[in-house]
Amino acid sequence: MAPGPTVPKHLNFITGNKNKLAEVQAILEGVIELRNQNVDLVEIQGTIEEVTRDKCRRAAEAIQGPVLVEDTCLSFKAMNELPGPYIKWFMLSLGPLNIHKLLSGFPDKSATAICTFAYCEGPGHEPVLFQGKTDGLLVESRGPTVFGWDSCFEYEGKTYAEMDKSEKNKISHRGKALDKLKEWLKSRVDEE
Ligand SMILES: O=P(O)(O)OP(=O)(O)OP(=O)(O)OC[C@H]1O[C@@H](n2cnc3c(O)ncnc32)[C@H](O)[C@@H]1O
Ligand SMILES: [Mg+2]
Q1: Which domain holds residue 66?
Q2: Is 60 exceeded by the pLDDT of residue 192?
Q3: Which residues are documented as binding site for ITP?
Q4: Measured by CB atoms within 10 angstroms of the end CB, which terminus of the chain is less buried, N or C?
């Protein structure tokens, strides 16, 4: 095996978000078996990479073992990339029916969805990051309001919520990040 972190056969994905978990399970099916623990992790302020690395270190400490975590951002060009990692708090306050109003004073509705996975072997180890981005537009909610801002993020004429799951996973920020993780996993999974 190439030098670097080892990965157990069962990857422990730490998240409290059921929709995220379902997508990750669907995309990684047949690649690696996923286990899930819901640990309430503190999320710091900082760049996307700083937030995700810190979240991963905390998760590894909390479970005292190897972990996979993920942090999702939604960034608006007109707002100089904010809210970014803080989108969760805007969603909690505004909800999917009002989030588009954040850009109502701006002609530029460009939005980028960014997904950053981090894997860490255990406490004291440096996390490895895998990032995927999808460019789209922030629009008025269209489609089911089941998952976060899916109904407000439009990619090539359709919101994520108007796509079926496999269609979203093919072009999504999460799908792209997991393509990179899958490539890396090929050389890393511990066969012992
Ligand atoms: O336990 P964790 O994994 O941290 O789960 P979370 O729900 O706190 O997730 P984040 O910290 O990554 O915050 C991202 C926010 O964006 C939402 N979100 C994440 N992925 C999404 C996707 O693919 N489509 C729409 N909304 C998404 C999610 O519901 C949150 O409001
Ligand atoms: Mg979170």
Answers
A1: 10-190
A2: no
A3: 15-20, 55, 71-72, 147-150, 168, 173-174
A4: C
- CA 71 to ligand 2 center in whole angstroms: 7
Do residues 14 and 60 lie in contact, with contact meaning Cβ atoms separated by under 8 Å? no
pLDDT at 117 exceeding the cut of 80:
yes
Write out the two tokens for 42: 């503190």
Q: Is 133 or 10 the better-scoring residue by pLDDT?
A: 133
Residue 158 lies in a domain: yes
Amino acid at site 87 = I
Count of structural domains, the chain: 1
Amino acid letter, 127: P
- In eight-state DSSP terms, residue 89 is H
Q: Is 77 a member of any domain?
A: yes
186 — pLDDT class (breaks 50, 70, 90)? confident
CATH number for the domain including 108? 3.90.950.10
Respond yes or no on whether ipTM tops 0.95. yes
